[in-house]
Amino acid sequence: xxxxxxxxxxxxxRYPFLLVDRVVELNLGESIVxxxxxxxxxxxxxxxxxDQPVFPGVLLLEALAQASGxxxxxTMNKKPADGxxxxxxxxxxxxxxxxxxxxxxxxxxxxVVSDRRGIxxxxxxxxxxxxxxxxxxILCADR
Length: 143
What we know:
Layout: H1 4-10, E1 22-27, E2 31-37, H2 57-76, E3 86-96, E4 105-116, E5 119-128, E6 131-142
Antiparallel strand pairs: 1-2, 2-4, 3-6, 4-5, 5-6
C-alpha cells in the first residue's frame, strides 16, 4: 500500500534510522500494518551482538512508534514538510517476548486507542511469522 518513497514523505527519519520498509494495510483513524525487514548488514548488528545478532528492543519499539506516526500523519492529512512533527512520548505495558534476528520480517501493528488534544494513544505489537515479539501501549504527540 505504501512503499519506502511514500513512507519518507510521512516520516522525517532517514537511514539508518528509518525503520519501516513498507505499509501493507492502512485504515485511517483506526490501524496500520507495516513491516521491517532485518538484514545482517544493518549497522546495529555489528555491536548488538557480534556473534549473536539481535535487533535492539529500543529500536523495535521505535519501529512501532514510526508505524504509529505514519498512521497519525495520514489520518490528520499532515506531513513533516508541512511543519508538523510527531514525537514518541511514552510507553506503558511494554513487553518483549522473543528476539528479532537477521532474516526476520518484523510485522508492525498499531491501532488507535484515543486522540485527545494532539496526544495519540496506540496499542502496538510486533510479530515474526505470527509469533509475538513485543507489545505495548504508546503515546505520541503532534507538535
